[in-house]
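User: Hi! I'm working on a homework problem where we have to compare a predicted structure to a textbook description. Could you give me the structure for the chain below?
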Amino acid sequence: MMINPPEDWKMPESEQAENKHRTSTEQVAEQVRTLVLSIGKDQLTLKQMMEKMNLKHRPNFIDNYLNPAIADGYIRLLYPQSPHHPRQKYLLTVKGLALT
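Assistant: Happy to help. Predicted structure tokens:
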């Protein structure tokens, strides 16, 4: 194992392959942005958000869109002390409103 290879072993940047694919972080950021833009200034239920975004698979929506948006502070719950509240809705935070 060589930690610092000699300079003549390194490939010039002009010969290195460009990264043409989006990283998973970029994709998550795009999904969060799409969700934030679909909510706007409204308070929406999970079902309403999915309908606006034309998505049908609830677990996928929660894992790939909603949870990252909440974790990054763009969306908040109307009833944060009761995540399974029967009238739970989601709305944008100040950070989320800045994206719109």
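For your comparison, note the following. The mean pLDDT is 84. The CA atoms of residues 20 and 26 lie 12 Å apart. Good luck with the assignment!
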